[in-house]
């Protein structure tokens, strides 16, 4: 199975900060990587697919990059509604696997 | 609009069984692959199982293989998860999610249904 190592597990940031979250795959997954945002008590919402393709309706302050084994999700200017937990997901091979999650908290 | 609605969760004793359902509406159900994903209380997301649009291809994660069975009824626009031999560590919110073949990601999720395994 492919392991996804996400870091950091949590971070504290202020509104307006630039935030970077990384995911590393245990083997190459090409660009079969998506990012999800989950708020407390809610279902996850897709932000990015194919490593860097922004989903319709997602603000442009979110961006994704990477290929192979190393990926990142960047929030260019953190907004109050962005405080949530973020997950990466590899869909290169089954079983699909999520990263452990990154909780973004208010500083 | 696209909607996925799970049902069937509840309290079950260890060793018991439960069948979850996920009804889809607002889209052509038979065009999409579907998956079940769960989240234990206070924990991260865990992918469980995949079923192709036709139902001909199925995958499971090891922790549920042999105990859980995914299926779908494209006439009734429904996805199912039969869960047998339930254990305390199966306690979680169970989500169904719609998969996009182009890009391989989940674009719509249900609201989740809570399964509690306890004596």
Mean pLDDT of chain B: 97
Question: What class, by secondary structure content of chain B?
Answer: mainly beta
Fraction of residues in β-strands of chain B: over 45%
Strand content of chain A: over 45%
Low-confidence stretches of chain A are none
Question: Please, how many helices of chain A?
Answer: 0
| Termini separation of chain A | 36 Å
Structure annotation, total helices of chain B = 0
Largest protein interface, residues of each chain:
A-B, 24 and 21 residues
Task: Identify low-pLDDT runs of chain B.
Answer: none
Distance between the termini of chain B: 40 Å
Mean pLDDT of chain A: 97
Number of strands of chain A: 11
What class, by secondary structure content of chain A? mainly beta
What is the 3D shape of chain A? globular
Instruction: Write down the secondary-structure element order of chain B.
Output: EEEEEEEEEEE
What portion of residues of chain A is helical? Answer: under 10%
Radius of gyration of chain A: 13 Å
Q: State the helicity of chain B in percent bands.
A: under 10%
Describe the structure concisely for a colleague:
Chain A has 107 residues and is mainly β.
Task: Explain what this protein looks like in three dimensions.
The complex is a heterodimer of chains A (107) and B (119). With 107 residues, chain A is an all-beta fold. Helices cover 0% and strands 50% of the residues of chain A. Chain A is built from no helices and eleven strands. Chain A is globular. In chain B, 0% of the residues lie in helices and 54% in strands. In chain B, a hairpin with a 5-residue loop joins strand 4 (33-39) and strand 5. Classes of the chains: A mainly beta (107), B mainly beta (119). The A-B interface holds A 1, 32, 34, 36, 38, 43-46, 49-50, 53, 55, 87, 89, 91, 94-101 and B 35, 44-47, 50, 59-62, 95, 100, 103-107, 109-112.
